[in-house]
Amino acid sequence: MDPLEIARWQFGVTTVYHFIMVPLTIGLGPVVALMQTQWVRTGDEKWLRMTKFWGKLYLINFIMGVATGLVQEFQFGMAWSEYSRFVGDVFGAPLAMEGLLAFFFESVFLGLWIFGWSRLPKKIHLATLWIAVAGSVVSAFFIIVANSWMQHPVGVELVDGRPVMNDIWAVLTNNTALAAYSHTIMGALAVGAGFVVGISWYQLWQRRRDGIDSVDAAGRVVVGENASIPGRDRKDHSVWLTSIRIAAVIAIVGFGGVAITGDVQAKLMFDQQPLKMAAAEAACQDGTSFSVLSIGNLGSQNCDDVVGIIEIPGILSFLAHGDFDTEIKGVNTLIPEYQELYGTNLPDDPLYGERAGMEINYLPIMEVTYWGFRLMIGFGMLAAAFAALTLWIVRKGTVPRSKFLMGTALLSIAAPFGANIAGWVFTEMGRQPFVVVPNPNPSGVDGVFMFTAAAVSPGVSGEEIIFSLASLALVYALLLVFEVRLLIKYVRGGVASAMPELGHPEGGDPGNSGDPDNPNDPNHPDRRDDVLAFAY
Amino acid sequence: MELLPTVWFIAIAALWIVYLLLEGFDLGVGMLLLFSTRSDKQRRLMLNAIGPVWDGNEVWLITAGAATFAAFPFWYASLFSALYIPLTIVLVSLIFRAVAIEYRGKGSSDTWRMWWDRALGLGSLGSAFGIGAALALTTTGLPIDANGDRVGGAFAWFTPYAVLGGLAVVGFSLVHASVFLGLKTDGEVRARARNFVVHWSPVALLPIVAWVLIIQFQHGTVITWALVVVAVVAVVFAWISARAGREGWAFVGIAAFLLAGASSIFAAVYPVVLPSTLNPAFDLTISNAASGEYTLGVMTVVAGFGLPLVFLYQGWTYWVFRNRLSEHHLPEAHTVKPAVAPPVSAR
User: Quick check: ipTM above 0.90?
Assistant: First the structure.
C-alpha cells in the first residue's frame, strides 16, 4: 500500500476535523469574554447568564479542539519524518513557541476560569478568561506562521541543501502569515458569531412557540414569562435578544474582515503561488476574466476541455493586481515555467520510493481548487447575508414563529464552518505537488522547496498509517456524535442548563433546608458556602 | 562539548520530567478510577482533585514534543516515526481521556458515566504506558539505520525495554496519584490512597527502579550513581512519611524521587539522544540531531522568558486550588432538562 496517499488523507482528515473545533473556540472565546466584561461592569444579570450559557457551550467544544490538536503535533514526526528532518530547523520553532507562549496560558487560565467562579475576585476571574482567550488567539498566530512558511519560505538560508533559519523576525512577519492570520481570525469570528445567531434564534423562537413571548399589532414583542419552565423568565428574553444582536453585528464585521484580508491574501498568492491561483480560476489561458462558472473536465491535464461559461472581464486582474487589464498567466503558460525551474521529473533519489524519476504533475487537482475557492466565498457570503437579514428581522424584539425560518437559522450555523473548510482544503490542495512551495517571484528564499512525495516517513508502512487513520477516523466520528448531542442537550436546556440555580431560586434543593445534625449534608447550614461553584 | 545543544538536551529532559511530575498524578487518578468501585461521589472527588490543573499539566507534553521538534528535529523525526503504533495508541488514549474528563459529568445516566469512566481509565493507562515505552526506548535504543529510519517492521519497537518503560510510568503514576490524593482529598478517598501507597508502592515502583538501574549499569558515572542514591533515599522517605500520615512530606519525597531518578537516566545517556541498536555509528546525538546555532539561540531566549512565567502562573493555580477537597464540597450532579413547555396534551 502506498504510504504517501494514505498519509495525505490522514493529514487532511485530521486537520479538517481539528479545524471544525478550533475556529469555534477562537471565535466564541472573545464573545464570552465580552459578555463577562459587561457583567462585571454593569452588574446586570443578563450578562452573567449569557456568560454562563455561551461559556458552557464554549467548553464543550474547547476540549475537542485540545484533544485533536495533539494529533497534529505528533503526526509530523510519525508520518512525515523526512519533512520534519528537512524543515525542523525553522518549522519546529513556531510550534514550540506556541506551546511556551500561548498554549500554556490558554490551558492554565481556562482551568482557573472554569473552577474560579466565586473563588477568585470578580475582576481577576474575568482576567483569567481574557488571558485564556488571548492564549488561543496567539496560539493560532504561531500555527499560521508555521503553515505560511510552507507556502512562502522566508528567513532561511540553504546549508547542505537544507533550510536553516537565520532570521526569526522574517519568519514571524512573513507577509503570507500576516495575511493568512488575519484572514483566519476574521473567519473564526464569523464562525463563533454565526453559532450564537443560530442558537439565539432558536431560543427566541422557542419562547414564542411556548406562548411566553408574543407580538402586538405593530409587530413589537410582548415579553412574558413561564415560571414552570426553569430559566424562562422575562430576563431570559433579553439574554437571547442581546446575544443575537451582538453576534449578528460581529458576523457582519467578521465577514467584512474576511473579504478585505482575503483580497490581500489573494494578491500575495497571485505573486507567490501563481499556479495555485490559476488553478483556483481554472484559468488555462492567460487573461483578465474572472470565471463565475466553468464546465468541462477540470481535472484534465492539457486543460483544453475547460470551457468558461460565465466570465466577467477584468475582475481577475482586479483581484490579482487592483487594475482591470493586467494579463494573468494561465495554467498553460505557467506549467512550462515551473518545469524549467524545478524540473520535469522527480529526482532519482531513494527518498521518492517508487516515484523516483516520475514525471511531475505541477497542476493541483482543479476540481478541488476551483470549487474550493468558490464554496469558500459562497458560504461566507451566505452567512453574512443571513446575519444582516437577522439584524433586520429582530429589530422589533423577537423572531417570527416560522419553524422553517428557525430551521434555516440553525442550518446557517454550518455556513461559516463550510467556508473555513473549503478555504483550507483549497489552499492546502492548491500547493501540491509541493509540501514546501517554491516561490518563482523571489521574495521567498530561492531554491527552498520540497515535493510532497519526498516528505513521508521512509520507515513507516502503509498498513501502519491505515491503522492510525482508521482508529482516528473512528474515534473522531464517535466523538463528533457525542459533542453534537451534548451541545443540543445544553442548547435545549436554555440558560438553566448552565445555571442550575435558575431552576431552584433558593440554591440547593427547593424545600430542603438541610439536616443541621449531619455535617456531610450539602444543604447543612454551615456547608452551603463551602460548596464549589463548579465541579466535574 | 557543545553549549547550546547541551542546554537544549537539559531543557528537554526537564520538560519531560516536569511533565511526569505533574501529569503523573493526573494519569494515575484516571487509572485509579478503574479500580475505584465505590460511590459516584468519591469518583467525582478524585476527578475534581485534578480538575482545575490537568489541562495545564498536559501542555508540558505538547511543549516537550514541540521543543524536541524545534531543537532536535532528527531525534523527533526518528523517534516518532519509529514508534508509529505506540504513539497512535497514545494519541487515541489522550483524546479519550481529555474528552472523558470534560464530558463525564455532562450526562445524567449511570451508563453514560460508567463508559466515560472506562474511557478515562483506559485512556490514562494507554497514555502512561505508551509514553513510558517511548521514553525508555529513546534511552535504550531502537533499530534505526543511517538515515534514522526504523528497520524491522511495525513492531520492531516491541522489546522488553518497551514493556519495562511502560510499566515504569504506569506504576509510578499510580503511586504518585495516591500520594497526591492523600494530600488533596479528605475522608475515605484520602485513607484509601494512603493505604495504597503503604501497601503497593514497593511493587508499583519496581519497574521504574529497574529502568534506572539498567541505564546506570550500562552508562553510569559517579554523578549519576549519586543521583540514584538520592532517589532511593527520597523514595524511602516518601514511604515512611506516607505511613506516618504526613502527606505533604510524602509528596515531597515522591517528587524528589522522580526528579533524581529521571535525571540520573538523562544524565547517563548524554550525549546520545537515540541510540541505534544496529550500529553505534547510527546513534543520534546532541550534535548530529540538533538544529542550527541560530535556531537554538532563538529558542533559548523564548524558553528563558516563557518557562519562568509558566512556573509562576501555574504555581499560582496550585496555590488558588490548594485546599483539600471533601465530598461535601461537591455540588449535586445537575440534570439538564429541556427548557420547553410540555406538549399541550400533557398540560
Answer: yes
Q: How many Cβ atoms are within 10 Å of A256's Cβ, its own excluded?
A: 13
The answer, for B331 touching chain A at a CB cutoff of 8 Å, is yes
Cell output for A407: 430551521
- Contact between chains at B329 and A532 (C-beta distance less than 8 A): yes
Our CA-based measurement puts residue B137 at a distance from the nearest CA of chain A, in whole angstroms, of 15
CA distances to A509, B336, B339 from A506, in Å: 8, 18, 19
CA–CA distance, B130 with A201 (Å, rounded to integer): 46
Answer whether B336 touches A (CB < 8 Å).
yes
Q: Looking at residue B322, what DSSP letter applies?
A: -
Task: Kindly give the pairing relationship between strand A162-165 and strand A214-215.
Answer: unpaired
Closest CA to B342 of A235, A226, A494: A226
CB < 8 Å to A162, chain B: none
Tell me if B51 and A536 make a contact (CB, 8 A cut-off). Answer: yes
> Residue B211: what are its φ and ψ, rounded to 5°?
-60, -50
Percent of chain A with pLDDT over 70: 90
Contact status, residue B222 vs residue B186, Cβ threshold 8 Å: no
Q: Is B324 left (phi over 0), alpha (psi -120 to 50) or beta?
A: beta
Nearest residue in A to B339, CA atom: A493
Cβ distance of B295 and A93 shorter than 8 Å: yes
Looking at residue B109, the DSSP 8-state letter turns out to be S
Domain ranges of chain B: 3-326
> B322 touching A, CB under 8 A?
no
- A483, A60 contact by CB (below 8 A): yes
Per-residue pLDDT, B87: 96
What is d(CA A140, CA A21) in angstroms, rounded to the nearest whole number?
Answer: 13
Chain B, 109 to 148: residues with Cβ < 8 Å from chain A are 144-145, 147-148
Task: Report long-range pairs for A53-56 (Cβ below 8 Å, ≥24 apart).
Answer: A53/A239, A53/A490, A53/A494, A53/A495, A53/A497, A53/A498, A53/A499, A54/A28, A54/A196, A54/A243, A55/A498, A56/A490, A56/A497, A56/A498
How far is A90 from A84, CA to CA, in rounded Å? 10
**pLDDT for the residue numbered A509:** 45
Instruction: Give the best-scoring range by mean pLDDT among A213-222, B38-47, B234-243.
Output: B234-243
φ, ψ of residue A312 in degrees (nearest 5): -110, 115
**Is the C-alpha dihedral spanning B297, B299, B304, B305 positive or negative?**
positive
Cβ(A519)–Cβ(B328) below 8 Å: yes
Radius of gyration of chain B (CA): 22
- Residue A102 is classified by DSSP as I
3-state DSSP: chain A helix, strand, coil percent, rounded to 5? 65, 5, 30
- Over the stretch A430-447, which tens digit does the pLDDT of each residue have? 888 899 988 776 566 677
Angle CA(A319)–CA(A415)–CA(A148) in degrees, nearest 5?
50
pLDDT at A522 over 70: no
